[in-house]
Fold this protein.
Amino acid sequence: MRLLLPPRVTEKSFQRALDAFASVVGKPWVLATDLDRETFMDFYAAGDADEHVPSAAVGPQSVEEVRAIVRIANEYKVPLWPISRGKNLGYGAAAPCLTGTVVVDLGRMNKILEVNERFGYCLIEPGVGFFDLFNYLQANNIKLWMSVPANAWGSVVGNALERGYGYTPYGENTRNICGLEVVLPNGDLVRTGTGAMANSTSWQLFRYGYGPSWDQLFVQSNFGIVTKMGMWLMPEPEATLGLNIQLPNPDDVGWAVDELAPLRMRGVIEQSPSIGNSLRFVATRTQRSEWYTGEGALPDAVLREILKKNGFGWWTINLRLYGYEEVNEVHARIIKEAFRRHIQQEIEVVKWRRGDPIENSGAGVPSTQALQIVNWRGGRGGHIGFSPVLPATSEHVLKQFHSTKRRYEEIGVDYYGSFTLFERYTTNVNMMVYDRDDREMTSKVRALFKVLIADAAKEGYSEYRTHLSYMDDVALTFDFNNHALRRLNEAVKDTLDPNGILAPGKQGIWPRALRADRA
Amino acid sequence: MRRVPTSRWRDLLAKRALLCAAVTWLAVAGVPAHAGDDSAQQVKQGKKLFEQRCGFCHLAGGTGTIMLARRLGKERSLLSERTDLSAEYIQKITRVGINSMPPHNRIEVPDSELNLITTYLTRPASARTAADTGSTSGTP
């Protein structure tokens, strides 16, 4: 990919900035060839990846190097896009929102600085991947469990900062954050919470500190570059008990939510069970062409046949209880009774006790197998996810499910959705899987995405995370008091980052100078 | 260690028709699959790096292995057992990706590491087996 400069930056000024970056990190860690730019683009883009093209990348190895890079960026007005490991697949990967932005790849900052088994936390740098931390815990026989997303190729820090999810009772990854170290857009360095006290003994223990609490300010934002994160890890339980439940019919998701949500809120279920349409399992094991080669979305009758042959219901729930064995047994009985009010088929039970192989435990064990789904359509696969948040009731879930499925069918894309239950809400992740070389399909997917944003907004459902190309669209749906939240975000942005150098456009937050361009 | 010449490398980068181009290179690649006399130590280092950097997907049971089994057959699904991969092909695919496999940048896998990985994957099977002695486990 040829060089595309950031707005209002001359080639001469840009080259000077690159030279200055090289004087900080060393020439090998400033990447600015055509090939380098390719490697930081959105590989899974639906359609044209050229919307989000980096001009270069720089790879610091220390906090001081990050601070120096930020100061240089301010001097030359070169925008920066920090990434932890760049595996935000389906949301833009390593690519920046604004073309011409320099990617700051923090992958070389990959130290596990501390793991505290007694208090259940770690302090890590952004380049630490899920596999790295898992291997460290295993190699050192540390009895702490991680919360790991479906595709675990990425960074522990990056995933928590993007509000990623895992499947254990610690599955809300952003909620596990306890104490950040952050380089501000002016190059200053702060520590949040009690870490603001130079000799703090509770940085990774007490979330709030004294006065305003800032951790969430740096989540899904462009207000700073996180260089260290404290994260709570779950003590290994005595036992786990898994319940694998098949729901035969599409509308069963409604009563299932109504039965499970109160149990989730009361703590009978502590993790966040995902009710997913079973096509997701079939799509990771087979290709569509093995089942159906016709036009349009997979017909319901064909899907039924596929699910029957594979032994799945329309929806699958993999629910897991963690804790003391006796307590798990009691909770399992309560859950089974709830389901028996609706279905009679056998519920598969999977039991694990401390000392058994970890693979069957329900612990967060990193894997990349979820990526198999991109192979569903064949060709050069890709995926993108639309993920609104709804109240956890059958009324909302059924409305959203039917509306989304109908939209998928209108454009001929197979429906692939799940509802994951938290205490009070559910996240509805809708995956769109496509062949990137099928221009007609990718343009339909892009159109579908905008329609889904509008449909959801009309019902009062907001997205919790989105792809680069839709950050502005989603931000626009937060419209209370004529977009007061945007005004607040912009006021903070302009105060902390007057030159607008940090991640312009992230989550729809643009610095003053670029807002004028976009008006 | 044999390096791909820079000018040719750039030429290759200009071509983005991934699979077709890759197949062409297999036929015309200037770097023979089993060239060189790299030391056993380099092969061992390459194996370790392969497991660390590529093992997420390309060890037994990994998502890359599963995809390759589907596309090319089980006998060609494990990269560490392949004998038909040229150095040029490995380096190209690592940097630009192929099908569902995303690209790997030079911070994630620096050229020096990619060269060692390439060394490992292009040695004869017997040399790779020798590298197993005293190596790390298969867990990435």
User: Anything to note?
Assistant: Chain B touches chain A through 28 residues (CB under 8 Å). Confidence is low (pLDDT under 50) at residues 1-35, 134-140 of chain B.
